[in-house]
């Protein structure tokens, strides 16, 4: 009854060819494009910012799902909304004012997402359920692709119960592949992010490789 969306993460894509990579994964069945923004402060890695998001927006027909692994978040919300983000997700751990951050994201017209690191309990979003459109459950500690999956099944089930019949997505992010996808889908997730499982072994010159990886998940 829940249709599962696949959101390949371009963190695992060819950084010299983002436009072609986004077109290739969409042509091969990606539902959303997951865009990992890292600032080298909230996470120990740096990727790219609003300018890159604006550039790749032109190559994405569907949902551009921007995952902000940055702190502070508020000063940059407008820039990512201007860049064309459809979903803007902030980490609950990024600062003390997540409630205001989600309000600010929604005020731009974008969907508001809140992300939980593995160590953060489901209850951290108890007061946010009417302010958010997506809860991103990290199944790795953020910062890198290709890490080992951390089982968060109990948290996912708890969140699905808390959400009730609200229109809130549960997105799983980190270590999702053919083996872990069924587990998280059964627990109540409906958006699956996958970086290495989609891009590894695929190639923009042979995009069907991406298609096979996406379909397998
Ligand atoms: C990690 C990112 C994830 C990551 C997923 O900080 O938020 O989106 O790119 O990559 P895989 O699927 O390879 O774990
Ligand atoms: Zn991510």
From TrEMBL:
Keywords linked to the UniProt accession? Carbohydrate metabolism, Isomerase, Metal-binding
Q: What does the record say about how the cofactor binds?
A: Binds 1 divalent metal cation per subunit.
Tell me which positions the record assigns to the signal sequence. Answer: none
Q: So where does substrate get bound?
A: 9, 67, 143-146, 173-175, 195-196
- Gene3D superfamilies under this entry? Aldolase class I
An example Gene Ontology molecular-function term = D-ribulose-phosphate 3-epimerase activity
Required co-factor(s) are: a divalent metal cation; Fe(2+); Co(2+); Zn(2+)
**Which InterPro entries does UniProt cross-reference here?**
Aldolase_TIM, Ribul_P_3_epim, Ribul_P_3_epim-like, RibuloseP-bd_barrel
Q: Does the keyword Isomerase apply?
A: yes
Reaction(s) this enzyme catalyzes, per UniProt: D-ribulose 5-phosphate = D-xylulose 5-phosphate
The EC number of this protein is: 5.1.3.1
Superkingdom of the organism of origin: Bacteria
Query: Per its UniProt record, what SUPFAM superfamilies does this chain match?
Result: Ribulose-phoshate binding barrel
Task: Tell me the active site.
Answer: 36 (proton acceptor), 173 (proton donor)
List positions binding a divalent metal cation. 34, 36, 67, 173
Pathway where this protein functions: Carbohydrate degradation
A UniProt-annotated Pfam family: Ribul_P_3_epim
Q: What family, per the record?
A: Belongs to the ribulose-phosphate 3-epimerase family.
The task this protein performs is described as:
Catalyzes the reversible epimerization of D-ribulose 5-phosphate to D-xylulose 5-phosphate.
What name is this protein filed under?
Ribulose-phosphate 3-epimerase
Q: Where does this protein come from, organism-wise?
A: Ruegeria spongiae
Q: Which gene encodes it?
A: rpe
């Amino acid at each position: 009854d829940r249709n599962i969306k696949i959101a390949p993460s371009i963190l695992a894509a060819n950084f010299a060819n983002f436009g072609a990579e986004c077109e290739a994964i969409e042509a091969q069945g990606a539902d959303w494009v997951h865009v990992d923004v890292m600032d080298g402060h909230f996470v120990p890695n740096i990727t790219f910012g609003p300018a890159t998001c604006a550039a790749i927006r032109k190559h994405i027909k569907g949902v551009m799902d921007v995952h902000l692994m940055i702190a502070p978040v508020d000063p940059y919300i407008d820039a990512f909304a201007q860049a064309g983000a459809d979903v803007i997700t902030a980490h609950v751990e990024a600062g003390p004012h997540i409630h205001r951050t989600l309000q600010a994201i929604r005020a731009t017209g974008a969907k508001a997402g809140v992300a939980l690191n593995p160590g953060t309990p489901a209850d951290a979003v108890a007061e946010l359920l009417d302010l958010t459109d997506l809860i991103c459950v990290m199944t790795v500690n953020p910062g890198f692709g290709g890490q080992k999956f951390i089982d968060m099944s109990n948290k996912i089930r708890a969140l699905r119960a808390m959400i009730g019949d609200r229109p809130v997505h549960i997105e799983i992010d980190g270590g999702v592949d053919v083996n872990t996808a069924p587990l998280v889908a059964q627990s109540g997730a409906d958006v699956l992010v996958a970086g290495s499982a989609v891009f590894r072994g695929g190639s923009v010159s042979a995009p069907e490789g991406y298609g096979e990886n996406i379909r397998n998940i």
